[in-house]
């Protein structure tokens, strides 16, 4: 990240700091002030824990999306994939309760199934994009419909519910925590940290940015463009699987409405965070902030009665646009 | 053998019932158009429609049921055109996505000379339909309000979780507010939870942070209510309040049956109404049975005393 933002700093030394880099953090600080003004309860540890825990699902998915978008791709199938993976996970665990009894081994098998499915789905998306030579938008629009239908089919149009004995065993994964911080928040932090290391400190991460910037130049530089793109999709699939492993113990169910619009939330988080939709620039910590901001907006609107509920969507939209405007405003002046 | 018998029955029935339609048409076709299973209630709707299709086709060998599901208003309008022009139906049973936009497409079906049954959501021009089978949304809001009023002794603080912004949701909420008017029940907050578990969970978490004392929750829908239950449990505030959902989901009916103090009752808005509409229409089509023009299914209050009557363990909803 420092490497890529260096030329910008050099070009406008008078600016003091890079608004493009710090924009998301400023917007987040603004939202926190707003939330506190709206209702002092906002800053209570319980509320903050709620917000961060909720962010974990879309946040983890958004970390994966940062890679895909940095390479110049897009993945619209993540919400549907999350629902489908959750559905399969529940079906498998319910089937295993009989022979294996309700306990941690069943949960572990369920988790492995989720991770396996996520990896395979990412691989399918990636192969269709790289080997099939189809635009990522179309491939993932297709798989989005496929996964959504599959979970509806699996659930007979209704809801798949986890066996109640299993729920009791699995519940702490969402509701438990360490040092007063809920497990999903720890996992979210770990995923973001690993994501940041991969994107900023490894060859693969630099290749992602290079390909998103100009894939022809990357190809001439002897980068295996297809392999990197494929890996980015596989990474995205893995992130979806991790999110699902945390999601299932929350309500113990999956249905056709699970994960609806998560793909847009994830993409919005990535863009608010300063990653370019056309690729070439990835910012993991920006993505994390973007994801937190999206949940905060909902939370703040729920904590106040001052704004008509009919206008919730308008407020959300306005805040998203302002947040991105904050960082792009200076970028365009260059 | 079975096949020839069925065929013979079909031929005999065809001769007996419809000389006007002639020999070419041996079967009576009933088109059923409903929203796709995009949320729990609609999932139940689809299940009941499929059950009814299987049952009716067995009961009336001359009857063919064509079931189509649509994801939005536009697709449902397309479905109607296909049912009339391609599938050549004799009658239509429709649960419209939305009242106003579907009125003209259904009018076109009627003008093509088909029998029209409208379910749940009334058209803006009721003269189109031959038969109307519906749940009663204002009644559902009213029954819910009456129960909460009585259970709280006419005084208390409640929160309301609404559905998806639609006519249905407005009718329920308006009737609810009308009914609690004049009592000392105060609605602390109201937010949309989109008939969805995850949203119910999130909105309730925030209500719990915002209000230190809540006596009751009107969740209006059983999917929302399940999310609310988890949020209340997580906050450890089960003893403080009770939750009233609605629809008649099996998990919720089970809780009422088992006397869960958190869920003392439920208000019915059964997705099974589609099956009833199909049965009445089929009976009329095949047997030419006389029918009433309107069947309104009441919003029954489910309590531990009558819960077992409304418990369908096999339904996905």
UniProtKB/TrEMBL annotation, chain A:
InterPro entries in UniProt: ABC_transp_permease
Segments crossing the lipid bilayer: 21-42, 48-69, 76-96, 102-124, 136-155, 175-200, 228-248, 307-326
Entry membrane topology: Multi-pass membrane protein
Keywords recorded for this protein, A-Z: Cell membrane, Membrane, Transmembrane, Transmembrane helix
Keyword Transmembrane: yes
Keyword Transmembrane: yes
One protein family per Pfam: BPD_transp_2
Compartment(s) where it occurs, according to its Swiss-Prot or TrEMBL record: Cell membrane
CDD domains: TM_PBP1_transp_AraH_like (cd06579)
Protein name: Ribose transport system permease protein
Species lineage: Bacteria, Pseudomonadati, Pseudomonadota, Alphaproteobacteria, Rhodospirillales
From TrEMBL, chain B:
Gene3D superfamilies to which the protein is assigned, alphabetical: 3.40.50.2300
Residue ranges of every copy of the Periplasmic binding protein domain listed in the record: 31-280
SUPFAM superfamilies: Periplasmic binding protein-like I
InterPro entries found in the cross-reference section: Peripla_BP_I, SBP_2_dom
Keyword annotations of the record: Signal
Localization annotation: Cell envelope
Signal peptide: 1-24
Recorded coiled-coil stretches: none
PANTHER family given in the database record: D-ALLOSE-BINDING PERIPLASMIC PROTEIN-RELATED
Membership in a protein family: Belongs to the bacterial solute-binding protein 2 family.
Protein name: Ribose transport system substrate-binding protein
Source organism of the structure: Azospirillum rugosum
């Amino acid at each position: 990240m420092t490497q890529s933002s260096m030329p910008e700093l050099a070009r406008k030394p008078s600016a003091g700091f890079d608004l493009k880099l710090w924009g998301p953090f400023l917007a987040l600080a603004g939202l926190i002030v707003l939330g506190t003004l709206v209702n002092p309860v906002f800053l209570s540890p319980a509320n903050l824990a709620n917000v961060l825990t909720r962010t974990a699902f879309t946040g983890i998915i958004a970390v994966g999306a940062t890679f895909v978008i940095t390479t110049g791709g897009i993945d619209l199938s993540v919400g549907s994939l999350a629902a489908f993976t959750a559905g399969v996970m529940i079906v498998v665990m319910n089937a295993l309760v009989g022979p294996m009894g309700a306990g941690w081994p069943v949960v572990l098998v369920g988790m492995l199934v989720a991770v396996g499915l996520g990896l395979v789905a990412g691989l399918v998306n990636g192969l269709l994009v790289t080997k099939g030579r189809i635009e990522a938008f179309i491939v993932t629009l297709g798989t989005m419909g496929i996964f959504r239908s599959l979970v509806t089919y699996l659930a007979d149009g209704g809801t798949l519910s986890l066996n109640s004995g299993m729920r009791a065993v699995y519940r702490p994964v969402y509701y438990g925590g360490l040092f007063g911080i809920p497990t999903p928040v720890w996992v979210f932090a770990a995923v973001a940290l690993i994501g940041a290391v991969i994107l900023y400190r490894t060859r693969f991460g630099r290749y992602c940015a290079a390909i998103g910037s100009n894939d022809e130049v990357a190809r001439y530089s002897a980068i295996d463009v297809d392999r990197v793109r494929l890996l980015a999709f596989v990474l995205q699939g893995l992130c979806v699987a991790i999110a699902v492993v945390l999601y299932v113990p929350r309500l113990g169910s999956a249905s056709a409405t699970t994960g609806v619009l998560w793909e847009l939330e994830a993409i919005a988080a990535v863009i608010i965070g300063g990653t370019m939709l056309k690729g070439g620039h990835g910012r993991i910590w920006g993505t994390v902030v973007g994801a937190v901001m999206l949940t905060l907006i909902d939370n703040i609107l729920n904590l106040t009665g001052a704004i008509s509920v009919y206008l919730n969507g308008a407020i959300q939209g306005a805040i998203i646009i302002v947040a991105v405007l904050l960082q792009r405003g200076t970028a365009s002046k260059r | 053998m079975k096949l020839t018998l069925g065929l013979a029955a079909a031929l005999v029935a065809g001769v007996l019932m419809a000389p006007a339609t002639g020999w070419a048409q041996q079967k009576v076709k009933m088109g059923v158009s409903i929203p796709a299973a995009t949320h729990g209630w609609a999932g139940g709707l689809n299940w009941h429609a499929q059950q009814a299709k299987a049952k009716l086709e067995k009961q009336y060998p001359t009857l063919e049921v064509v079931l189509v599901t649509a994801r939005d208003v536009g697709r449902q309008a397309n479905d109607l055109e296909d049912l009339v022009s391609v599938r050549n139906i004799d009658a239509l049973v429709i649960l419209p996505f939305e009242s106003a936009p579907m009125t003209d497409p259904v009018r076109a079906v009627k003008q093509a000379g088909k029998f029209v049954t409208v379910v749940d959501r009334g058209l803006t021009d009721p003269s189109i339909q031959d038969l109307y089978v519906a749940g009663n949304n204002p009644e559902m809001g009213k029954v819910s309000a009456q129960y909460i009023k009585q259970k709280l002794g006419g005084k208390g603080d409640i929160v309301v979780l609404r559905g998806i912004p639609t006519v249905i949701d407005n009718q329920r909420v308006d009737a609810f507010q009308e009914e609690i008017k004049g009592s000392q029940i105060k609605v602390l907050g109201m937010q949309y939870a989109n008939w969805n578990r995850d949203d119910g969970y999130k909105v309730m978490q925030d209500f719990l942070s915002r209000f230190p004392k809540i006596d009751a929750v009107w969740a209006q829908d059983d999917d929302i209510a399940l999310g609310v239950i988890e949020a209340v449990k997580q906050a450890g505030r089960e003893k403080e309040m009770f939750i009233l959902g609605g629809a008649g989901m099996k998990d919720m009916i089970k809780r009422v049956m088992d006397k869960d103090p958190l869920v003392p009752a439920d208000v019915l808005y059964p997705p099974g109404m589609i099956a009833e509409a199909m049965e009445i229409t089929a009976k009329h089509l095949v047997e030419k049975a006389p029918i009433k023009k309107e069947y309104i299914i009441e919003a029954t209050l489910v309590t531990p005393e009558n819960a077992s009557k409304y418990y369908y363990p096999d339904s996905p909803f």
